[in-house]
């Protein structure tokens, strides 16, 4: 590591003493301290070379220190003359006259005026500011009766020429130690400040935003490369000039009141720029302003990148059309329709019984569409209470309600920007939210809860329901205008009873995906497949999946048998029978259904998810059936 401190000794003995101090007191950092000998102009070449090599602080004495300070732009630490240094000089002289002159540069003689009262002599200060005036001032002192000059090397030489005695004030080890230690502290602080300044400069220079700083007079102090690019002005032309003269189109902030920051979209030339202004405050006093300027297109790109990262974290559709197994006519027709609808941007309404795989077809449509690289966001409208669903869909500002997250939160519409938003169980959405949803569909923008600005969003809506929306409209539970907004394109998911021939194919695919349940099971025998076709599947694909999982656990492999299916199907069969179509039996069957549902729920210790899994229905369906018991009794 190169030296950080340079000690310039005006005379050889001082240089030798300084080397001793460095070895004795600065052993660990001796390599950072360089000592050279040179008086006045003869040392300047060595000083300049040292500064080029990276020296951060210079230590010297007397006129040499004063001269160096005029020629370099780094800190100079003078070696202060102590009372002990003066006393040592007097002691070496022996007898001293009544009138003594202390001559030298200010940094040598400072504080010596009090010494006379201690020694009982008269001390005359002879302050020398440059070498040229030294002879004249010392001669004047001799004329006033001074017979001994003590001071720096120049003063002692001049005294000898004038025929009087001179004594050189030599700095002691303590003075050298203090000066070197002070220089070390200054070097450390200077290095830290330089590192901070370099860090700040690098951050400002590398910023993707244009950064302009102005002082209290609104003159530019910082104009970073991005600002140069945005305004086509070099920082060499900008720094030091008034901001209005450099960028006349830029609207300056009007800070009236306590606000210390402002933001606005400004049109400068053919650019739309987001301009944020922050006052620079020091001890509650404004000393300048920072302007952060960014092209609106940059913000949009940044927003898109954030959404892509969110997409990478899980907001993605994983099911493709090839994952939908089935060779039946109804299944093939469904696939053809979904493939055509995927090529459009229109809203789609997917209908069908619970468990028919509505989300599978929705994900498939997303993956076949032009939005496949965008996010896929799904929300179950029946799974959340109204207030929570509203904040999830539309987002909220900080402080919008009790418990609102600091900084606010994006809504699902924003997360789904340039992608697909799947609204499952749309028939369960409260009327108040239906009105807000309709407005989003119409305006293609959202507003946060507690917010006062609209946020444009580009989202394709696909909704799904297992309810009869036309009936709900008649009961005033679903908005007619929203229904026609959603029902532009429509896909009906066939129940398993409408595609019986697909059941064995679906079951075999499920077995492949559930190998972790029982690796011994690799297939389904013919009798088991035929039996599956004969069973009732009111829970559709979801119920079939639960039955296959139970059968795999019961089976010894390698293929699931009919007996495995019979044992696994037992509980599902009860629910299937309870969903018969005989109108005359509906009252008693509904009561029996309630009893079965409650029994399974109690056995699962009121865990709705586990109970629904056993029954082969969705947990939302289980909740709805249990909460419909009051109506059944009536």
How would you describe what is shown here?
By secondary structure, the protein is of the alpha/beta class. The protein has 5 domains: 90 residues, Response regulator (Rossmann fold, 3-Layer(aba) Sandwich), CATH 3.40.50; 88 residues, Rossmann fold; 88 residues, PAS domain (Beta-Lactamase, 2-Layer Sandwich); 172 residues, 3-Layer(aba) Sandwich (Rossmann fold), CATH 3.40.50.300; 136 residues, Helicase, Ruva Protein, domain 3, CATH 1.10.8.60. Helix content is 47%, strand content 18%. It is built from 28 helices and 22 strands. A 5-stranded antiparallel β-sheet has the order 10-9-13-12-11. The chain has a 5-stranded parallel β-sheet with strand order 15-16-19-14-20. Strands 2-1-3-4 form a 4-stranded parallel β-sheet, with helices on both faces. A hairpin with a 2-residue loop joins strand 11 and strand 12. Helix 23 runs antiparallel to helix 24. The protein is elongated, with a radius of gyration of 44 Å. The C terminus is likely disordered.
